[in-house]
């Protein structure tokens, strides 16, 4: 399964992304609106590994963090065989710096995808996974009318996909 470190957004941005999930569902697209687990929330994944050791979790606990502004931008499609619909998080120096710092903490772990390495990472919030090609136009149309909007990164969470649990990390949360 997957182990990850993720940035969480403020309540207004969370509600806006959930609204977009619902717009997709209303358009007949299997969006993240259908995932009802309490841990299913809009987030920005900054690091992923197949395994994270206890020393990594200890380092994450000591990570100094303060909320910072971001901008949620346009709609993008990742991949062709199994398209993923996402909302871009406009890269800023602060966002890229925090991703680099968090990635560095996790970088010794096994199974890190290449697209999560600094300078390869595209910050985003997922709207729908595995969108059928026949629905891709409708999916984009359902949410592309929305404009960019400001948000704030308010926290960092650690996700354990094996045990399907989450917890906040970082000092200053």
Protein model, in words:
The chain has a single domain, classed as Cyclic Phosphodiesterase, Chain: A (Alpha-Beta Complex), CATH 3.90.1140.10. Helix content is 29%, strand content 31%. 31% of the residues are buried. By secondary structure, the protein is α+β, with helices and mostly antiparallel strands. It is built from 4 helices and 7 strands, in the order βαβαββαβαββ. The two termini are 27 Å apart.
Provide a short characterization of the protein structure:
The protein contains four helices and seven strands. The chain is an alpha+beta fold.
Number of domains: 1
What is the strand content? 25-35%
Mean pLDDT across the residues is 90
The major pleated sheet works out as: 7 strands, antiparallel
CATH architecture classification name: Alpha-Beta Complex
The percentage helix is: 25-40%
SSE inventory with pairings:
Layout: E1 3-9, H1 11-26, E2 43-49, H2 54-61, E3 68-78, E4 84-89, H3 93-106, E5 124-128, H4 133-144, E6 149-160, E7 165-169
Antiparallel strand pairs: 1-2, 1-6, 3-4, 3-6, 4-5, 6-7
What are its keywords?
173 residues; alpha+beta; Cyclic Phosphodiesterase, Chain: A; seven-stranded antiparallel beta sheet; 4 helices; 29% helix
């Amino acid at each position: 399964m997957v182990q990850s470190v993720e940035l969480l957004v403020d309540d207004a941005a969370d509600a806006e992304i959930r609204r977009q999930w619902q717009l997709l569902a209303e358009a007949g697209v299997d969006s993240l609106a259908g995932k009802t687990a309490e841990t299913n929330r809009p987030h920005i994944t900054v690091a992923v590994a197949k395994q994270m050791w206890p020393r990594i979790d200890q380092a994450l606990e000591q990570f100094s963090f303060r909320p910072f502004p971001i901008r949620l931008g346009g709609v993008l499609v990742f991949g062709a065989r199994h398209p993923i619909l996402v909302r871009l998080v406009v890269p800023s120096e602060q966002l890229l710096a925090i991703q680099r710092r968090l990635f560095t903490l996790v970088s010794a772990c096994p199974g890190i995808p290449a697209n999560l390495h600094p300078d390869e990472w595209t910050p985003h919030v997922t709207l729908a996974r595995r969108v059928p090609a026949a629905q891709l136009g409708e999916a984009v149309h359902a949410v592309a009318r929305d404009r960019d909007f400001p948000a704030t990164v308010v926290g960092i969470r650690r996700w354990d996909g094996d045990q399907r649990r989450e917890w906040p990390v970082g000092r200053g949360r």
